[in-house]
């Protein structure tokens, strides 16, 4: 009933008793290849869809950031414009001296956020171009306004000469003369360092002429003090007051031109920022 080892076939002679159809095997291999291709295509399509959606979401977020940045710059521009209207008043400090730095930061942030937009897509490309142009315009305005505010600050300091007595005690004369000489020297060096622009050049020339005039004026005033000539000293003091008053009057005209220029420039900028916020939002 049991086969012995002698009855079993040799291993090298044994083959599995399976009937394999070659055509069916080939068909099965084709099906497996087709399934593998379909799986790969599905994976590729899924990855492509995800990448597209990721890029779309990224650009949507970038557009929202541009819109928010444009709104922030519009607010900073409004505050800077308000500060510009205070240029003419040399007797009071500016209400918001830090606004220029805030405006500059907002302008540069618009540049940065705009650079994240895809220039090759119709919507983002057009918004990107408008944002970059608007940021450039904002910085050009800042250059003019910043120079004007810097000029004004320097002017305020220069229009405050030291005490000018008409009948100083002989022991005080050297100190008074030293104070005047120091002020005249600072006047010259400050004028030389003042920013220049087409809107400031006329007043800057007047300041340069005044600096030259002061060099001769201080000699006459110092001589009057040393000689104890109170009448001559008062005469020189009156000359200086009238000269500085002429500088203030001229600044009133210059600052008005600056205010008019800035008002128009900020109006154009405001319109562009509104358009940018609408298109990016």
Structure description:
With about 280 residues, the protein is an all-alpha fold. The chain has two domains: about 120 residues; about 120 residues, no CATH class. About 75% of the residues lie in helices and about 0% in strands. Helix 3 packs antiparallel against helix 6 and helix 4 runs antiparallel to helix 5.
Features:
mainly alpha, 6 helices
Structural class: mainly alpha
**Largest sheet, strands/sense/barrel:** none
Tell me the series of helices and strands, N- to C-terminal.
HHHHHH
The Rg value, from CA coordinates, equals 41 Å
The N- and C-terminal alpha carbons lie at a distance of 91 Å
What is the structure about, briefly put?
The protein has 281 residues and is mostly helical.
SSE order and pairing:
Blueprint: H1 22-84, H2 99-114, H3 122-158, H4 173-193, H5 201-226, H6 230-280
Helix pairs in contact: 1-2, 1-3, 1-6, 2-3, 3-6, 4-5, 5-6
């Amino acid at each position: 009933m049991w086969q012995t080892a002698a009855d079993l076939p040799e291993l090298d002679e044994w083959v599995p008793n399976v009937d394999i159809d070659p055509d069916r095997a080939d068909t099965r291999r084709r099906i497996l290849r087709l399934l593998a291709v379909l799986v790969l295509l599905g994976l590729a399509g899924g990855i492509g869809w995800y990448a597209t959606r990721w890029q779309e979401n990224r650009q949507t977020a970038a557009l929202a950031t541009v819109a928010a940045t444009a709104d922030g710059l519009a607010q900073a521009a409004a505050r800077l414009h308000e500060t510009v209207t205070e240029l003419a008043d040399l007797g009071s400090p500016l209400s918001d001296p830090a606004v220029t730095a805030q405006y500059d930061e907002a302008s540069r942030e618009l540049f940065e956020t705009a650079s994240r937009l895809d220039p090759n897509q119709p919507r983002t490309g057009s918004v990107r171009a408008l944002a970059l142009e608007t940021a450039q315009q904002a910085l050009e305005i800042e250059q003019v306004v910043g120079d004007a505010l810097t000029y004004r600050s320097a002017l305020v300091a220069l229009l405050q000469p030291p005490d000018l007595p008409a009948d100083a005690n002989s022991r005080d004369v050297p100190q008074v003369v030293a104070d005047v000489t120091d002020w005249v020297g600072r006047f010259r060096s400050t004028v030389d360092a003042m920013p220049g622009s087409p809107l400031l050049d006329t007043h800057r020339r007047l300041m340069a002429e005044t600096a030259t005039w002061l060099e001769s004026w201080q000699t006459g005033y110092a001589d009057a003090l040393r000689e104890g000539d109170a009448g001559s000293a008062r005469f020189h003091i009156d000359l200086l007051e009238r000269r500085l008053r002429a500088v203030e009057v001229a600044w009133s005209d210059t600052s008005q031109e600056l205010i008019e220029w800035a008002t128009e420039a900020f109006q154009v900028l405001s319109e562009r920022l509104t358009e940018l916020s609408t298109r990016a939002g």
